[in-house]
Amino acid sequence: MALLTFSSCEDKLTELNENPNVVAPSSANPNMLMPTVMAEAAKKYLDWGYGDAAGIVQHTQKDGWFSGHNHYDWSPTDWSDYYNQLRNNDFLYKRAVALNYKFHQGVALTMRAFLFGNITDLWGDAPYTEALKGDVSDDMIRPKYDSQEVIYKGIIEDLKAASSLFASGDVTGYRTGYDVYYNGDPAKWQKFANSLLLRYYMRVSAKLPDVAKAGIESIYSSGIYIKAASEDAAMDYAGGVAGNSWPGAAEFNTDPSEFRRRKPAKLLMDQLIATEDPRLKVWFQPVYVRWVADPTLATPVDQFIRKNGVIQTGTVSLTDAQFLTETKAGNKFTRHYNPNTFTVAVDTREYVGVPAGLIDPSSFNYNPTPGQVVQNQHVSQLSETYRGTRGGLLKARLISAAEVSFILAEAAQKGWSVGAAETHYNNGVKNSLDTWGASSSYATFIEKNGVKFNNTLAQIMEQKWIASWTSAIEAWMDYRRTGLPAFKAGPAAPESVLPVRFIYGDNETNFNNANSVSALGKLEENTHTKIRGKNSQWAKPWVIQGTGKPW
Question: Which InterPro entries does the record cross-reference, listed alphabetically (predicted)?
Answer without folding.
Answer: SusD-like_2, TPR-like_helical_dom_sf
